[in-house]
Design brief:
This protein has 347 residues and is α/β, with parallel strands linked by helices. The protein is built from 13 helices and 12 strands. The protein has an 8-stranded parallel β-sheet with strand order 5-4-3-10-9-8-7-6. Strands 1-2 form a two-stranded antiparallel ribbon. Strands 11-12 form a two-stranded antiparallel sheet. Helix 1 packs parallel to helix 5, helix 1 runs parallel beside helix 11 and helix 10 runs parallel beside helix 11.
């Protein structure tokens, strides 16, 4: 599997998971709320905080329908009206990015049109995140790829063939790509999570793979890390009860913090894949393994039989796997009952 760098973070099989706190549009169009989200992401221990950059006029037609979850969470306004209300200006994004940098957290954003791509490129963003809905938007993918910055490509709603097509296009200009398994539903059902797709994408494309988690709770994100996910992206909000399309399906700051802690704890247990005893196990091994022991007093010159021997703790003598090699050997000194046999006692 290849590795890529985003800012000062390495993303790959043997690196810690890159945790993206997805603020999205949960700022509700307020730069002050956006800054609160940056603060919450930093305090939770996330590596990056991510927003969504778009020009409503370039993104959606005025009569476009809303998704069911958007209708439920944002009332009767049209999709155009809803998105327009959530749009931030160029200068506001520049201010948020600077604020994130001052706070010591990586700023990322998903662009939804070429104008937004150019803005983020001018801001020297360390990577582009491509939302699932854009995976077949080849003009946008090409425009992003030609900026020669790392790309995080979300694959929600797509087939593996569509993922391959998008990759083939991006790879013509840029090879620093992370794939994200994703379910584009808010919230997504846990039974639809299909985390084994992470391994499918790794095997098929030999690239770092992450998980953009839209299920409720933190279990699926933590499980994805255990399966080798290199990146975790999770929506969060200051308050789930705020009005807006994504708040209800987002984590609150304390939950985000708990997710990051759980991920870091799981990573401690993943190790390097080499099967060998730990230093603590080496100490315990002597106590709980067994050795070949004299079943009774055995005088010097005796030819050992199986009946003269037994197997007991501790494991500091001859290992039981050598029992057949001891039978038939002559003792060169007396051995008392319960003594551990030693190789230098045998002829």
């Amino acid at each position: 599997m290849s590795e890529i760098k985003i800012a000062n973070k390495t993303i790959g099989e043997y690196s810690k998971s890159f945790v993206i706190a997805e603020a999205g549009v949960n700022h509700n169009g307020s730069i002050e709320m956006a800054k609160k989200l940056v603060n919450a992401a930093k305090e939770a221990g996330a590596d990056a905080v991510k927003f969504q950059t778009f020009k409503t006029k370039n993104l959606v037609t005025k009569n476009a329908e809303k998704a069911e979850y958007q209708i439920k969470n944002s009332g009767e306004e049209s999709q155009y009206e809803m998105i327009k209300r959530l749009e931030l200006s160029d200068s506001e994004f520049e201010e948020i990015a600077k604020y994130a940098g001052d706070k010591g957290i990586i700023f990322l954003s998903s662009p939804f049109d070429t104008e937004s791509v150019d803005l983020l490129d001018e801001m020297n963003i360390p990577a582009f995140k491509i939302a699932s809905g854009e995976i077949t938007n080849f003009p946008l993918l090409k425009h992003i790829a030609k900026k020669h910055r790392p790309v995080i490509l979300s694959t929600g709603m797509s087939t593996i063939g569509e993922v391959e097509e998008a990759l083939n296009l991006i790879e013509k200009y840029n090879d620093d790509i992370v794939l994200m398994h994703c379910l584009t539903n808010y919230p997504a059902k846990k039974e639809d999570a299909n985390l084994k797709v992470i391994k499918t994408l790794e095997y098929a494309f030999k690239r770092p793979v992450g998980f953009s988690d839209h299920t409720s709770g933190i279990e699926m994100s933590v499980a994805a890390v255990a399966m080798g996910s290199c990146v975790i992206e999770k929506h969060f909000t200051i308050d789930k009860n705020l009005p807006g399309p994504d708040h209800k399906a987002s984590l609150e700051p304390q939950e985000l913090s708990e997710m990051v802690k759980a991920i870091r704890n799981v990573e401690k247990g993943l190790g390097n894949g080499i099967k060998k005893p730990t230093n603590d196990e080496i100490k315990i091994k002597k106590l709980v393994r067994k050795s070949i022991v004299a079943e009774k007093d055995i005088p010097k010159g005796s030819i050992l039989t199986e009946e003269m021997l037994t197997i007991k703790r501790p494991g500091t003598g001859i290992e039981p796997k050598y029992l057949d090699e001891l039978v038939g050997r002559e003792l060169v000194e007396d051995v008392k009952k319960d003594d551990l046999l030693k190789w230098n006692q045998l002829k």
